[in-house]
Amino acid sequence: MPNTAARQGHTAAKRSTAARSAAPAIAPAHFLAHGRLHRAIVSLPQHMCPSDEPLHERIVFFDVPSPGNAGLYLVTLLAAAWNVDAEDWRENGLVYNVRPARDLFEEGMSADENARLFEMGWDGPQGVSYAEPRRVDLFVAPALKARLQATIDHLAREGLAA
């Protein structure tokens, strides 16, 4: 299994030291998925990586019809969406950190509750690190996609996500 800590460190991200605050007036984006939204990290196989990046990770958001086996569902989804044979990606550690959005929301540190879904780590005094927008894939319903994309765009405008 690949070194997850090293992989997470590879994913370039910007930092925020913003602390949590009171909930916004509207419900967080993941509520639109009614408990079905998940996020995973997908490390592309070598033949799919850009030539200048031997390790290329994607942050993938996806709706799951039933939460019982989100990882298996994601592999099937990626095989169809990217037209690849992804059958062994989970076993080979290419798909990992498959997490329900509810957990990301509850464990997140960002004041912006939607931004918690894009948190990739905490770097002490440097604050929260976020996923790079160009590495995010959204396989979700249109209304949820619009909310998540708005959050990505906001993080980029604020200089928190490159």
Descriptive overview:
The chain is of the alpha+beta class and 162 residues long. It has one domain. Helices cover 27% and strands 20% of the residues. A four-stranded mixed beta sheet has the order 4-2-3-7, sandwiched between helices. A hairpin with a 5-residue loop joins strand 5 and strand 6. The longest helix is centred in the last third of the chain and has 16 residues. The N terminus is likely disordered.
Short characterization:
The protein has 162 residues and is of the alpha+beta class.
**Main β-sheet description:** 4 strands, mixed
Widest sheet, order of strands: 4-2-3-7
Low-confidence stretches: 1-25
Number of helices: 4
Distance between the termini: 28 Å
Strand-and-helix sequence, N→C?
HEEEHEHEEEH
Tell me the fraction of residues in β-strands, as a range. Answer: 15-25%
Structural class: alpha+beta
Number of structural units classed as domains? 1
Mean pLDDT: 80
Q: Can you count the beta strands?
A: 7
* Whole-angstrom Rg: 15 Å
Helix content: 25-40%
Please state the overall shape, judged from the principal axes of the Cα atoms.
globular
List keywords for this structure.
three-stranded antiparallel beta sheet; alpha+beta; four-stranded mixed beta sheet; 4 helices; 162 residues
Helix and strand arrangement:
Blueprint: H1 4-10, E1 15-16, E2 37-43, E3 57-63, H2 70-82, E4 95-100, H3 101-107, E5 119-122, E6 128-130, E7 136-139, H4 142-157
Parallel strand pairs: 3-7
Antiparallel strand pairs: 1-6, 2-3, 2-4, 5-6
